[in-house]
Predict the 3D structure of the following.
Amino acid sequence: MLEVEALRKSFYGTVAVDDVSFRVESGEILGFLGPNGAGKTTTMRMITGFLEPGSGKVTVDGIDAAARPREARARIGYLPETLALYPEMRVREYVKFRAELCGVPRKATKSRVDDALATCFVDDVAQKPIGNLSKGYRQRVGLAAALVHGPQVLVLDEPTVGLDPRQIVKVRELIRDLRKDHTILLSTHILPEVELVCDRVVIIDRGKIVATGTPETLRQQLTQAPGLAVGLKGEIPEADGILRQLPGVVHASRMGVGGETRVLLEADRGSDLRENVFRECVARGWTVLELSSRQATLEDVFVRLLAARDAVGADKPDDLPAAVEESEPRGEARS
Amino acid sequence: MKALLAILKREFLAYFFSPLAYVVLTAFLFINGYVFYAILLSLNSPETSRQELMALFFKNVFYWIFMMLVSSIVAMRLIAEERKSGSIEALLTAPVGEGTVVTGKFLGGFTFFVFLWLPTVLYPVALSRYGRIDFGPIASGYLGIALFGALFIAAGTFASSLTKNQIIAAIVSFVMILAIFLAGIFRELVTDPNLKEALSYLNLIEHMDDFARGIVDTRRIVYVLSSVVFFLLLSARVLHGNKGK
Protein backbone atom coordinates (compact mmCIF):
# COMPACT_ATOMS: atom_id res chain seq x y z
CA MET A 1 0.00 0.00 0.00
CA LEU A 2 2.80 2.36 0.95
CA GLU A 3 6.27 1.66 -0.28
CA VAL A 4 9.43 3.59 0.38
CA GLU A 5 12.58 2.76 -1.57
CA ALA A 6 16.07 3.96 -0.80
CA LEU A 7 14.99 7.35 0.50
CA ARG A 8 17.81 9.73 1.14
CA LYS A 9 17.87 13.30 2.26
CA SER A 10 20.52 15.64 3.49
CA PHE A 11 20.32 19.18 4.76
CA TYR A 12 23.29 21.39 4.04
CA GLY A 13 25.63 18.42 3.87
CA THR A 14 24.29 16.63 6.95
CA VAL A 15 22.65 13.35 6.09
CA ALA A 16 19.25 13.15 7.82
CA VAL A 17 17.83 10.09 6.12
CA ASP A 18 20.11 7.54 4.55
CA ASP A 19 18.86 4.74 2.34
CA VAL A 20 15.57 4.06 4.11
CA SER A 21 13.33 1.42 2.55
CA PHE A 22 10.23 -0.28 3.90
CA ARG A 23 6.74 -1.34 2.95
CA VAL A 24 3.49 -0.91 4.80
CA GLU A 25 1.02 -3.56 3.77
CA SER A 26 -2.65 -2.89 3.39
CA GLY A 27 -4.45 -2.83 6.73
CA GLU A 28 -1.26 -2.88 8.73
CA ILE A 29 0.00 -0.56 11.44
CA LEU A 30 3.70 -0.02 11.03
CA GLY A 31 5.57 1.60 13.89
CA PHE A 32 8.43 3.84 12.95
CA LEU A 33 10.61 3.91 15.98
CA GLY A 34 13.67 5.93 16.79
CA PRO A 35 15.11 8.48 19.15
CA ASN A 36 14.48 12.17 18.59
CA GLY A 37 16.42 13.41 15.61
CA ALA A 38 16.70 9.97 14.02
CA GLY A 39 15.07 11.09 10.78
CA LYS A 40 11.51 9.94 11.42
CA THR A 41 9.91 13.29 10.72
CA THR A 42 12.07 13.90 7.66
CA THR A 43 11.09 10.50 6.26
CA MET A 44 7.41 11.17 6.89
CA ARG A 45 7.67 14.58 5.31
CA MET A 46 9.12 13.00 2.19
CA ILE A 47 6.31 10.44 2.13
CA THR A 48 3.65 13.13 2.46
CA GLY A 49 5.25 15.42 -0.08
CA PHE A 50 6.17 18.25 2.28
CA LEU A 51 9.80 17.61 1.43
CA GLU A 52 11.19 16.37 -1.83
CA PRO A 53 13.34 13.27 -1.43
CA GLY A 54 17.01 13.83 -2.15
CA SER A 55 16.82 10.50 -3.91
CA GLY A 56 14.69 7.39 -3.69
CA LYS A 57 11.08 6.68 -4.39
CA VAL A 58 7.76 6.83 -2.58
CA THR A 59 4.85 4.79 -3.92
CA VAL A 60 1.37 5.20 -2.49
CA ASP A 61 -1.21 2.66 -3.57
CA GLY A 62 0.80 2.02 -6.72
CA ILE A 63 1.18 5.71 -7.51
CA ASP A 64 4.65 7.18 -7.84
CA ALA A 65 4.57 10.25 -5.60
CA ALA A 66 7.22 12.05 -7.63
CA ALA A 67 5.41 11.63 -10.94
CA ARG A 68 1.85 12.20 -9.72
CA PRO A 69 2.24 14.10 -6.46
CA ARG A 70 -1.32 15.31 -6.07
CA GLU A 71 -2.86 11.90 -6.63
CA ALA A 72 -0.44 10.40 -4.15
CA ARG A 73 -1.20 13.09 -1.57
CA ALA A 74 -4.92 12.59 -2.04
CA ARG A 75 -4.44 9.04 -0.78
CA ILE A 76 -2.59 10.09 2.34
CA GLY A 77 -3.94 11.57 5.54
CA TYR A 78 -1.15 13.24 7.45
CA LEU A 79 -0.93 14.28 11.06
CA PRO A 80 2.23 16.38 11.36
CA GLU A 81 4.27 16.34 14.53
CA THR A 82 4.07 20.08 15.06
CA LEU A 83 0.33 19.99 15.03
CA ALA A 84 -0.45 23.52 13.99
CA LEU A 85 -4.11 24.09 13.24
CA TYR A 86 -5.73 27.44 12.67
CA PRO A 87 -6.59 28.52 16.21
CA GLU A 88 -9.32 30.94 15.19
CA MET A 89 -11.33 28.35 13.28
CA ARG A 90 -14.01 26.25 14.86
CA VAL A 91 -13.49 22.50 14.87
CA ARG A 92 -16.23 21.69 12.38
CA GLU A 93 -15.26 24.64 10.21
CA TYR A 94 -11.67 23.43 10.07
CA VAL A 95 -12.52 19.84 9.24
CA LYS A 96 -14.89 21.10 6.56
CA PHE A 97 -12.12 23.34 5.22
CA ARG A 98 -9.86 20.30 4.97
CA ALA A 99 -12.59 18.35 3.19
CA GLU A 100 -12.98 21.12 0.61
CA LEU A 101 -9.23 21.46 0.27
CA CYS A 102 -8.87 17.75 -0.40
CA GLY A 103 -11.59 17.70 -3.01
CA VAL A 104 -14.39 15.90 -1.19
CA PRO A 105 -17.48 16.27 -3.40
CA ARG A 106 -19.84 18.97 -2.16
CA LYS A 107 -22.73 16.59 -1.57
CA ALA A 108 -20.62 14.24 0.51
CA THR A 109 -18.95 16.96 2.55
CA LYS A 110 -21.43 17.17 5.37
CA SER A 111 -21.64 13.45 6.02
CA ARG A 112 -17.88 13.02 5.71
CA VAL A 113 -17.25 15.82 8.19
CA ASP A 114 -19.81 14.36 10.60
CA ASP A 115 -18.23 10.92 10.28
CA ALA A 116 -14.72 12.22 10.87
CA LEU A 117 -15.79 14.22 13.90
CA ALA A 118 -17.62 11.22 15.36
CA THR A 119 -14.80 8.78 14.62
CA CYS A 120 -12.32 10.93 16.48
CA PHE A 121 -14.71 11.75 19.34
CA VAL A 122 -14.60 15.46 18.76
CA ASP A 123 -18.23 15.96 17.80
CA ASP A 124 -18.93 17.38 21.25
CA VAL A 125 -16.58 20.31 20.63
CA ALA A 126 -17.52 20.81 16.97
CA GLN A 127 -18.51 24.44 17.51
CA LYS A 128 -15.56 25.43 19.67
CA PRO A 129 -12.60 27.41 18.36
CA ILE A 130 -9.58 25.14 18.02
CA GLY A 131 -7.45 27.55 20.03
CA ASN A 132 -9.56 26.88 23.12
CA LEU A 133 -9.11 23.11 23.08
CA SER A 134 -6.75 20.98 25.13
CA LYS A 135 -3.84 19.32 23.40
CA GLY A 136 -5.57 15.94 23.43
CA TYR A 137 -8.60 17.35 21.71
CA ARG A 138 -6.50 19.23 19.19
CA GLN A 139 -4.63 16.03 18.38
CA ARG A 140 -7.90 14.30 17.63
CA VAL A 141 -9.13 17.26 15.59
CA GLY A 142 -5.92 16.95 13.59
CA LEU A 143 -6.67 13.28 13.12
CA ALA A 144 -10.24 14.01 12.04
CA ALA A 145 -8.88 16.53 9.54
CA ALA A 146 -6.37 13.98 8.27
CA LEU A 147 -8.98 11.34 7.54
CA VAL A 148 -11.94 13.42 6.40
CA HIS A 149 -11.16 12.88 2.72
CA GLY A 150 -11.05 9.10 3.18
CA PRO A 151 -7.36 8.41 2.50
CA GLN A 152 -6.17 4.82 2.30
CA VAL A 153 -2.96 5.60 4.15
CA LEU A 154 -2.58 7.51 7.39
CA VAL A 155 0.80 8.94 8.30
CA LEU A 156 0.88 9.91 11.95
CA ASP A 157 3.94 11.66 13.30
CA GLU A 158 4.25 11.15 17.06
CA PRO A 159 0.49 11.13 17.60
CA THR A 160 0.69 10.79 21.37
CA VAL A 161 3.51 13.18 22.18
CA GLY A 162 2.67 15.82 24.73
CA LEU A 163 -0.58 14.23 25.85
CA ASP A 164 -1.50 13.25 29.39
CA PRO A 165 -1.77 9.51 30.14
CA ARG A 166 -5.54 9.44 29.84
CA GLN A 167 -5.45 11.17 26.47
CA ILE A 168 -2.67 8.85 25.31
CA VAL A 169 -4.84 5.82 25.99
CA LYS A 170 -7.70 7.40 24.09
CA VAL A 171 -5.60 8.29 21.06
CA ARG A 172 -4.07 4.81 20.96
CA GLU A 173 -7.50 3.22 21.07
CA LEU A 174 -8.55 5.49 18.28
CA ILE A 175 -5.56 4.51 16.16
CA ARG A 176 -6.24 0.83 16.68
CA ASP A 177 -9.83 1.41 15.58
CA LEU A 178 -8.70 3.22 12.46
CA ARG A 179 -6.83 0.19 11.18
CA LYS A 180 -10.13 -1.23 9.98
CA ASP A 181 -10.23 1.23 7.11
CA HIS A 182 -6.70 2.53 6.86
CA THR A 183 -3.12 1.50 6.43
CA ILE A 184 -1.18 3.29 9.11
CA LEU A 185 2.38 4.45 9.45
CA LEU A 186 3.02 5.80 12.91
CA SER A 187 6.18 7.24 14.32
CA THR A 188 7.10 7.28 17.94
CA HIS A 189 10.03 7.31 20.28
CA ILE A 190 8.06 5.47 22.95
CA LEU A 191 8.66 1.73 22.90
CA PRO A 192 5.61 0.53 24.78
CA GLU A 193 3.51 2.36 22.27
CA VAL A 194 4.94 0.21 19.52
CA GLU A 195 4.19 -2.96 21.41
CA LEU A 196 0.66 -1.83 22.18
CA VAL A 197 -0.34 -0.52 18.82
CA CYS A 198 1.81 -1.78 15.97
CA ASP A 199 1.92 -4.94 13.90
CA ARG A 200 5.39 -4.35 12.68
CA VAL A 201 8.26 -2.08 13.62
CA VAL A 202 11.01 -0.31 11.76
CA ILE A 203 13.73 1.04 14.00
CA ILE A 204 15.67 3.97 12.68
CA ASP A 205 18.68 5.73 14.10
CA ARG A 206 20.64 8.58 12.59
CA GLY A 207 18.86 8.21 9.33
CA LYS A 208 19.48 4.51 8.89
CA ILE A 209 17.23 1.54 9.52
CA VAL A 210 18.79 -0.60 12.22
CA ALA A 211 16.12 -3.27 12.65
CA THR A 212 12.80 -4.38 11.19
CA GLY A 213 10.27 -6.95 12.35
CA THR A 214 7.25 -7.60 14.51
CA PRO A 215 7.53 -6.42 18.11
CA GLU A 216 7.85 -10.09 19.20
CA THR A 217 10.66 -11.01 16.86
CA LEU A 218 12.49 -7.81 17.69
CA ARG A 219 12.27 -8.66 21.33
CA GLN A 220 13.60 -12.09 20.61
CA GLN A 221 16.44 -10.76 18.55
CA LEU A 222 17.32 -7.90 20.74
CA THR A 223 16.28 -8.48 24.28
CA GLN A 224 18.89 -9.50 26.77
CA ALA A 225 18.45 -12.43 29.06
CA PRO A 226 17.13 -11.62 32.50
CA GLY A 227 19.66 -9.87 34.65
CA LEU A 228 20.37 -9.41 38.28
CA ALA A 229 20.72 -6.30 40.38
CA VAL A 230 23.08 -6.63 43.34
CA GLY A 231 23.18 -4.01 46.08
CA LEU A 232 26.27 -4.06 48.34
CA LYS A 233 27.13 -2.10 51.42
CA GLY A 234 30.08 0.27 51.12
CA GLU A 235 32.09 1.48 48.13
CA ILE A 236 33.48 -1.57 46.39
CA PRO A 237 35.12 -0.45 43.14
CA GLU A 238 36.26 -3.93 42.21
CA ALA A 239 32.80 -5.50 42.59
CA ASP A 240 31.79 -5.49 38.96
CA GLY A 241 35.18 -6.84 37.86
CA ILE A 242 34.94 -9.76 40.23
CA LEU A 243 31.30 -10.61 39.54
CA ARG A 244 31.94 -10.54 35.82
CA GLN A 245 34.27 -13.52 36.28
CA LEU A 246 31.40 -15.70 37.47
CA PRO A 247 30.16 -18.32 35.02
CA GLY A 248 27.12 -17.20 33.06
CA VAL A 249 27.70 -13.47 33.40
CA VAL A 250 27.98 -11.67 30.08
CA HIS A 251 27.97 -8.11 31.23
CA ALA A 252 28.41 -6.21 34.46
CA SER A 253 28.13 -2.54 35.25
CA ARG A 254 28.61 -0.79 38.55
CA MET A 255 27.54 2.45 40.10
CA GLY A 256 28.15 3.83 43.57
CA VAL A 257 25.21 5.46 45.27
CA GLY A 258 25.66 7.10 48.68
CA GLY A 259 27.94 4.57 50.33
CA GLU A 260 26.38 1.66 48.49
CA THR A 261 27.50 -0.17 45.42
CA ARG A 262 25.04 -1.37 42.88
CA VAL A 263 26.05 -3.86 40.24
CA LEU A 264 23.84 -4.79 37.32
CA LEU A 265 24.59 -8.17 35.84
CA GLU A 266 23.35 -9.64 32.63
CA ALA A 267 23.11 -13.37 32.51
CA ASP A 268 23.85 -15.73 29.74
CA ARG A 269 20.70 -17.26 28.43
CA GLY A 270 19.28 -19.84 30.80
CA SER A 271 21.73 -19.41 33.66
CA ASP A 272 20.54 -18.54 37.11
CA LEU A 273 23.16 -16.37 38.73
CA ARG A 274 21.58 -15.82 42.08
CA GLU A 275 23.25 -18.55 44.04
CA ASN A 276 26.74 -18.02 42.67
CA VAL A 277 26.52 -14.29 43.17
CA PHE A 278 25.37 -14.71 46.74
CA ARG A 279 28.19 -17.16 47.56
CA GLU A 280 30.78 -14.94 45.93
CA CYS A 281 29.65 -11.94 47.94
CA VAL A 282 29.68 -13.86 51.18
CA ALA A 283 33.08 -15.31 50.41
CA ARG A 284 34.45 -11.81 49.92
CA GLY A 285 32.81 -10.54 53.05
CA TRP A 286 30.48 -8.10 51.26
CA THR A 287 27.19 -7.29 52.86
CA VAL A 288 24.38 -7.95 50.41
CA LEU A 289 21.65 -5.34 50.72
CA GLU A 290 19.70 -6.30 47.66
CA LEU A 291 19.55 -9.14 45.22
CA SER A 292 16.79 -8.87 42.67
CA SER A 293 16.01 -10.27 39.29
CA ARG A 294 15.82 -7.71 36.59
CA GLN A 295 13.89 -8.21 33.41
CA ALA A 296 15.63 -6.34 30.62
CA THR A 297 12.99 -4.39 28.76
CA LEU A 298 12.84 -3.68 25.10
CA GLU A 299 13.56 -0.15 26.14
CA ASP A 300 16.93 -1.03 27.69
CA VAL A 301 17.86 -2.98 24.66
CA PHE A 302 16.82 -0.21 22.37
CA VAL A 303 19.05 2.23 24.20
CA ARG A 304 21.94 -0.25 24.15
CA LEU A 305 21.36 -1.06 20.52
CA LEU A 306 21.82 2.58 19.69
CA ALA A 307 24.73 2.93 22.10
CA ALA A 308 26.39 -0.08 20.47
CA ARG A 309 26.34 1.78 17.19
CA ASP A 310 28.23 4.61 18.85
CA ALA A 311 31.03 2.47 20.20
CA VAL A 312 32.84 1.61 17.00
CA GLY A 313 33.87 -2.01 17.01
CA ALA A 314 34.55 -2.42 20.70
CA ASP A 315 32.37 -4.40 23.04
CA LYS A 316 29.58 -4.93 20.59
CA PRO A 317 28.91 -8.59 19.99
CA ASP A 318 28.03 -9.41 23.56
CA ASP A 319 25.58 -6.54 23.56
CA LEU A 320 23.50 -8.18 20.93
CA PRO A 321 22.61 -11.71 21.91
CA ALA A 322 20.84 -13.77 19.33
CA ALA A 323 17.75 -14.82 21.17
CA VAL A 324 15.85 -14.91 24.40
CA GLU A 325 13.44 -17.25 26.08
CA GLU A 326 10.06 -17.45 24.44
CA SER A 327 8.34 -17.55 27.78
CA GLU A 328 9.35 -14.02 28.63
CA PRO A 329 6.34 -12.07 29.86
CA ARG A 330 5.24 -9.66 27.19
CA GLY A 331 3.84 -7.08 29.54
CA GLU A 332 7.22 -6.22 30.94
CA ALA A 333 8.01 -3.31 28.73
CA ARG A 334 4.58 -1.80 28.97
CA SER A 335 3.91 1.12 31.17
CA MET B 1 -11.41 25.36 -7.90
CA LYS B 2 -13.16 24.27 -4.73
CA ALA B 3 -9.83 24.15 -2.93
CA LEU B 4 -9.04 27.65 -4.20
CA LEU B 5 -12.33 29.01 -2.86
CA ALA B 6 -11.81 27.22 0.45
CA ILE B 7 -8.42 28.86 0.87
CA LEU B 8 -9.74 32.24 -0.22
CA LYS B 9 -12.55 32.06 2.30
CA ARG B 10 -10.31 30.98 5.13
CA GLU B 11 -7.77 33.71 4.43
CA PHE B 12 -10.40 36.40 4.20
CA LEU B 13 -12.17 35.37 7.40
CA ALA B 14 -8.87 34.99 9.26
CA TYR B 15 -8.35 38.77 9.07
CA PHE B 16 -11.34 39.36 11.29
CA PHE B 17 -9.87 37.26 14.07
CA SER B 18 -6.81 39.41 14.35
CA PRO B 19 -6.76 42.83 16.04
CA LEU B 20 -4.51 44.02 13.24
CA ALA B 21 -7.41 43.94 10.80
CA TYR B 22 -9.49 46.26 12.94
CA VAL B 23 -6.60 48.64 13.48
CA VAL B 24 -5.98 48.79 9.73
CA LEU B 25 -9.67 49.20 9.01
CA THR B 26 -10.04 52.03 11.53
CA ALA B 27 -6.88 53.85 10.49
CA PHE B 28 -7.87 53.42 6.88
CA LEU B 29 -11.30 54.98 7.35
CA PHE B 30 -9.89 57.74 9.53
CA ILE B 31 -7.24 58.82 7.02
CA ASN B 32 -9.52 58.47 4.03
CA GLY B 33 -12.27 60.39 5.77
CA TYR B 34 -9.81 63.08 6.68
CA VAL B 35 -8.46 63.32 3.15
CA PHE B 36 -11.97 63.46 1.76
CA TYR B 37 -12.81 66.24 4.17
CA ALA B 38 -9.64 68.17 3.31
CA ILE B 39 -10.35 67.93 -0.41
CA LEU B 40 -13.91 69.01 0.18
CA LEU B 41 -12.70 72.06 2.09
CA SER B 42 -10.24 73.11 -0.56
CA LEU B 43 -12.82 72.72 -3.28
CA ASN B 44 -15.22 74.90 -1.39
CA SER B 45 -13.35 77.93 -2.59
CA PRO B 46 -15.22 79.21 -5.68
CA GLU B 47 -12.31 79.12 -8.16
CA THR B 48 -11.87 75.31 -8.20
CA SER B 49 -13.98 73.05 -10.34
CA ARG B 50 -16.21 70.68 -8.44
CA GLN B 51 -16.11 67.78 -10.89
CA GLU B 52 -12.57 66.84 -10.03
CA LEU B 53 -13.25 65.99 -6.43
CA MET B 54 -13.24 62.23 -6.61
CA ALA B 55 -10.35 62.37 -9.08
CA LEU B 56 -8.36 64.21 -6.45
CA PHE B 57 -9.35 61.61 -3.94
CA PHE B 58 -7.86 58.88 -6.10
CA LYS B 59 -4.56 60.51 -6.90
CA ASN B 60 -3.41 62.50 -3.93
CA VAL B 61 -0.16 61.62 -2.21
CA PHE B 62 -1.95 60.10 0.78
CA TYR B 63 -3.66 57.74 -1.55
CA TRP B 64 -0.32 56.31 -2.70
CA ILE B 65 1.29 56.16 0.71
CA PHE B 66 -1.76 54.45 2.03
CA MET B 67 -2.05 52.03 -0.84
CA MET B 68 1.52 50.95 -0.34
CA LEU B 69 1.39 50.71 3.42
CA VAL B 70 -1.97 48.98 3.63
CA SER B 71 -1.12 46.46 0.94
CA SER B 72 2.10 45.52 2.73
CA ILE B 73 0.27 45.05 6.02
CA VAL B 74 -2.61 43.13 4.50
CA ALA B 75 -0.29 40.77 2.64
CA MET B 76 2.39 40.23 5.27
CA ARG B 77 0.68 37.41 7.14
CA LEU B 78 -0.51 35.45 4.12
CA ILE B 79 2.28 32.88 4.01
CA ALA B 80 4.74 33.98 6.70
CA GLU B 81 2.21 33.33 9.47
CA GLU B 82 1.68 29.74 8.39
CA ARG B 83 5.38 29.14 7.98
CA LYS B 84 5.94 30.38 11.49
CA SER B 85 3.16 28.37 13.11
CA GLY B 86 3.88 25.27 11.03
CA SER B 87 0.35 24.97 9.68
CA ILE B 88 1.84 25.30 6.21
CA GLU B 89 2.82 21.63 6.53
CA ALA B 90 -0.77 20.47 6.64
CA LEU B 91 -1.67 22.87 3.86
CA LEU B 92 1.07 21.83 1.45
CA THR B 93 0.55 18.12 2.03
CA ALA B 94 -3.07 18.46 0.96
CA PRO B 95 -3.64 17.39 -2.64
CA VAL B 96 -3.43 20.94 -4.01
CA GLY B 97 -0.64 22.57 -5.98
CA GLU B 98 1.46 25.43 -4.68
CA GLY B 99 -0.09 27.65 -7.34
CA THR B 100 -3.56 27.09 -5.92
CA VAL B 101 -2.35 27.77 -2.39
CA VAL B 102 -0.64 31.00 -3.39
CA THR B 103 -3.52 32.18 -5.57
CA GLY B 104 -6.08 31.41 -2.89
CA LYS B 105 -4.10 33.30 -0.32
CA PHE B 106 -3.55 36.24 -2.64
CA LEU B 107 -7.27 36.40 -3.44
CA GLY B 108 -8.11 36.24 0.26
CA GLY B 109 -5.84 39.20 0.95
CA PHE B 110 -7.13 41.04 -2.09
CA THR B 111 -10.75 40.51 -1.04
CA PHE B 112 -9.94 42.03 2.33
CA PHE B 113 -8.27 44.96 0.58
CA VAL B 114 -11.40 45.54 -1.49
CA PHE B 115 -13.45 45.23 1.66
CA LEU B 116 -11.42 48.07 3.19
CA TRP B 117 -12.39 50.38 0.36
CA LEU B 118 -16.09 49.55 0.38
CA PRO B 119 -17.12 52.23 2.91
CA THR B 120 -15.52 54.94 0.78
CA VAL B 121 -18.16 54.31 -1.87
CA LEU B 122 -20.36 56.38 0.42
CA TYR B 123 -18.38 59.51 -0.44
CA PRO B 124 -19.50 59.86 -4.05
CA VAL B 125 -22.97 58.72 -3.06
CA ALA B 126 -23.06 61.51 -0.46
CA LEU B 127 -21.70 64.00 -2.98
CA SER B 128 -24.34 63.11 -5.52
CA ARG B 129 -26.96 64.54 -3.19
CA TYR B 130 -25.41 67.97 -3.51
CA GLY B 131 -24.51 68.13 -7.16
CA ARG B 132 -24.26 66.30 -10.40
CA ILE B 133 -21.69 63.51 -10.26
CA ASP B 134 -20.23 61.66 -13.21
CA PHE B 135 -20.01 58.08 -12.01
CA GLY B 136 -17.94 56.93 -14.98
CA PRO B 137 -14.58 58.26 -13.76
CA ILE B 138 -15.42 57.15 -10.23
CA ALA B 139 -15.97 53.60 -11.38
CA SER B 140 -12.74 53.65 -13.35
CA GLY B 141 -11.02 55.18 -10.32
CA TYR B 142 -12.11 52.24 -8.21
CA LEU B 143 -10.98 49.92 -10.98
CA GLY B 144 -7.57 51.57 -10.68
CA ILE B 145 -7.57 51.05 -6.94
CA ALA B 146 -8.46 47.40 -7.37
CA LEU B 147 -5.76 46.88 -10.00
CA PHE B 148 -2.96 48.53 -8.09
CA GLY B 149 -4.12 46.89 -4.91
CA ALA B 150 -3.87 43.54 -6.69
CA LEU B 151 -0.37 44.38 -7.92
CA PHE B 152 0.84 45.46 -4.49
CA ILE B 153 -0.75 42.56 -2.66
CA ALA B 154 0.73 40.10 -5.15
CA ALA B 155 4.16 41.61 -4.43
CA GLY B 156 3.34 41.36 -0.72
CA THR B 157 2.37 37.71 -1.10
CA PHE B 158 5.73 37.02 -2.65
CA ALA B 159 7.51 38.87 0.18
CA SER B 160 5.47 36.87 2.68
CA SER B 161 6.57 33.60 1.09
CA LEU B 162 10.21 34.48 1.69
CA THR B 163 10.22 34.56 5.47
CA LYS B 164 8.61 33.32 8.66
CA ASN B 165 8.65 36.80 10.12
CA GLN B 166 5.66 38.97 9.28
CA ILE B 167 7.44 42.23 10.06
CA ILE B 168 10.23 41.36 7.67
CA ALA B 169 7.63 40.36 5.10
CA ALA B 170 5.94 43.76 5.49
CA ILE B 171 9.21 45.65 5.14
CA VAL B 172 10.37 43.65 2.12
CA SER B 173 7.00 44.04 0.51
CA PHE B 174 6.94 47.80 1.17
CA VAL B 175 10.38 48.18 -0.36
CA MET B 176 9.39 46.17 -3.42
CA ILE B 177 6.20 48.15 -3.88
CA LEU B 178 8.09 51.39 -3.44
CA ALA B 179 10.59 50.26 -6.07
CA ILE B 180 7.78 49.44 -8.49
CA PHE B 181 6.22 52.81 -7.75
CA LEU B 182 9.46 54.76 -8.12
CA ALA B 183 10.44 53.00 -11.35
CA GLY B 184 8.08 55.27 -13.23
CA ILE B 185 9.47 58.36 -11.55
CA PHE B 186 13.02 57.37 -12.50
CA ARG B 187 11.97 58.14 -16.03
CA GLU B 188 12.80 61.76 -15.33
CA LEU B 189 16.36 60.80 -14.41
CA VAL B 190 17.42 58.71 -17.40
CA THR B 191 18.53 60.06 -20.76
CA ASP B 192 18.40 56.92 -22.88
CA PRO B 193 15.17 57.36 -24.86
CA ASN B 194 14.39 53.62 -25.01
CA LEU B 195 14.73 53.25 -21.28
CA LYS B 196 12.68 56.37 -20.79
CA GLU B 197 9.97 54.88 -22.94
CA ALA B 198 10.10 51.59 -21.05
CA LEU B 199 9.97 53.25 -17.66
CA SER B 200 7.04 55.39 -18.62
CA TYR B 201 5.03 52.18 -19.00
CA LEU B 202 5.71 51.57 -15.34
CA ASN B 203 4.61 54.98 -14.20
CA LEU B 204 1.84 54.15 -11.79
CA ILE B 205 1.01 57.77 -11.06
CA GLU B 206 0.28 58.30 -14.72
CA HIS B 207 -1.74 55.08 -14.84
CA MET B 208 -3.83 56.19 -11.91
CA ASP B 209 -4.30 59.70 -13.34
CA ASP B 210 -5.83 58.10 -16.37
CA PHE B 211 -8.11 55.89 -14.35
CA ALA B 212 -9.19 58.80 -12.20
CA ARG B 213 -10.09 60.76 -15.32
CA GLY B 214 -12.13 57.86 -16.60
CA ILE B 215 -9.65 56.51 -19.13
CA VAL B 216 -9.48 52.73 -19.05
CA ASP B 217 -6.45 51.68 -21.04
CA THR B 218 -6.12 47.94 -21.59
CA ARG B 219 -2.32 48.25 -21.61
CA ARG B 220 -2.51 49.31 -17.96
CA ILE B 221 -4.70 46.35 -17.14
CA VAL B 222 -2.42 43.94 -18.95
CA TYR B 223 0.60 45.40 -17.17
CA VAL B 224 -0.96 44.93 -13.73
CA LEU B 225 -2.42 41.49 -14.35
CA SER B 226 0.79 40.13 -15.84
CA SER B 227 2.73 41.51 -12.86
CA VAL B 228 0.29 39.81 -10.51
CA VAL B 229 0.77 36.50 -12.29
CA PHE B 230 4.53 37.01 -12.21
CA PHE B 231 4.60 37.56 -8.45
CA LEU B 232 2.29 34.62 -7.79
CA LEU B 233 4.46 32.36 -9.93
CA LEU B 234 7.48 33.50 -7.95
CA SER B 235 5.70 32.76 -4.67
CA ALA B 236 4.68 29.30 -5.84
CA ARG B 237 8.27 28.74 -6.90
CA VAL B 238 9.49 29.69 -3.43
CA LEU B 239 7.03 27.32 -1.77
CA HIS B 240 8.09 24.57 -4.11
CA GLY B 241 11.75 25.35 -3.59
CA ASN B 242 11.36 25.04 0.16
CA LYS B 243 10.44 21.40 -0.35
CA GLY B 244 13.90 20.70 -1.60
CA LYS B 245 15.47 22.00 1.57
Observations:
- The mean pLDDT of chain B is 87.
- DSSP finds twelve helices and no strands in chain B.
- Residues 2-243 of chain B form one domain.
- The radius of gyration of chain B is 19 Å.
